[in-house]
Design brief:
With about 375 residues, this protein is mainly beta. The protein has a domain of about 200 residues. It has an 18-stranded parallel sheet that branches. It has an 8-stranded parallel sheet with strand order 4-7-9-12-16-20-24-28. Strand 1, helix 2 and strand 2 form a beta-alpha-beta unit.
């Protein structure tokens, strides 16, 4: 699927950290399509000697994180255990993939193309760092990440299904689960931390998304369903929104923390969205399916069919900033539903349910 800013419009309308690696006796796997369990044995980067035999082994005889993912890609349902350490991705992206269209797990970002569970030793103990060479990870299947940090991503590869440089930390076109994961210090054109395309779903629990940047959707972009539970989205920002010719009007400058562009429900439960910034409205959250916020405000202010939906429960959306318009929440052709217990410092998030509160000092640090 070819996804870009403009094609996305059509699609939707139409339908820190250093550690010492722990060396362990590795289960490097065995040939065959049955699921395996792989324990990474080195923080070094390196591709599998044979990416098709389902064995986690480089030419040097090590089980690297990249080689483990390559092995898991031919053995769906596998588990990868990543000990404490900083895993820097040192292999630059394939030159041809900077303009698509092929996924190359041996270079650049880590491409997870089969159902896989990746377990780190803890958010502040296992760090995967792309070194600003490429995005950190591309996920196209049912993928679960836990106990680790994703950092240093700078989306450059235009791989299928992402022909634009979305998702500096993670570009997701599958079903992604993140538990106790920190996404920090990544950059992209869209979704500085995470980009979920229209067919993708994501669940994020007890996690942090912070200090990411993009021309649109500084922290996270959701083009389908996303659920955030006890998750903090903070200090993300939209920068240089109109550097690219195709980002104009509603195509840029919005959604400092979270940018919602699909019609699937996005749910925040006991979560925090604070300190994010955008050039235009929605410093905290922008919700506008199919880029309908690029239409003239004379039209969008009158007609609001409520195509998109944001559901809030027990969450704080406060102290976000925007150069124009609504600071915390901006919506076009969408509804914000509060089920109570939410907090904000302005009225832009439609907090009117029992237990909601709007206070000027809400979310202050």
């Amino acid at each position: 699927m070819k996804i870009s800013s403009l094609s996305l419009l059509g699609v939707v309308i139409l339908g820190a950290l250093y550690g010492v690696p722990i060396r362990a006796a590795a289960d490097t796997g065995s040939a065959g399509a049955v699921p395996g369990t792989f324990t990474v044995t080195t923080t070094a980067d390196g591709a599998a000697a044979n990416p098709f035999d389902g064995i986690c082994r480089t030419d040097a005889g090590e089980c690297t994180l990249r080689a483990a993912i390559q092995a898991a890609n031919v053995r769906p349902g596998s588990t990868i255990r990543v000990p404490e350490g900083r895993y820097e991705l040192t292999i630059p992206p394939n030159f041809w993939n900077t303009n698509g269209p092929f996924i190359d797990p041996a270079t650049g970002d880590l491409d997870v193309t089969a159902d896989t569970t990746i377990e780190g030793a803890g958010q502040d103990r296992t760090v995967i760092d792309a070194g600003h060479r490429d995005r950190v990870m591309l996920t196209t299947a049912h993928v679960s990440l836990s106990g680790l940090t994703i950092t240093g991503g700078n989306a450059t590869e235009h791989e299928i299904p992402l022909f634009e440089t979305g998702g500096g930390g993670i570009a997701n076109s599958g079903k992604l689960i993140l538990d106790h994961v920190t996404v920090v210090g990544n950059a992209a054109d869209y979704g500085g931390g995470i980009f979920n395309i229209p067919v993708a779903d994501m669940k994020m629990t007890d996690s942090i998304v912070t200090a990411n940047a993009a021309g649109e959707a500084g922290g996270i972009r959701c083009d389908n369903t996303c659920t955030f539970t006890r998750t903090v989205i903070t200090d993300n920002r939209v920068v240089n929104p109109r550097v690219k010719w195709y980002r104009f009007g509603g195509f840029a400058g919005r959604g400092g923390g979270l940018d919602i562009r699909g019609v699937g429900a996005v749910v925040l439960i006991d979560s925090v969205v604070t300190g994010n910034s955008a050039d235009e409205g929605g410093g905290g959250i922008n919700i506008a399916p199919a880029y309908l916020d690029s239409l003239p405000y004379q039209f969008t202010d009158v007609f609001n069919p409520g195509m998109g939906q944001l559901i809030l429960h027990g969450s704080t959306i406060a102290q976000n900033t925007a150069g124009l318009g609504e600071q915390n929440c901006k919506k076009v052709f969408a509804t914000i539903v509060s089920t109570g217990g939410n907090l904000s410092n302005d009225h832009s998030c439609d907090l009117t349910a029992a237990g909601d509160a709007v206070r000027p000092d809400a979310g202050s640090r």
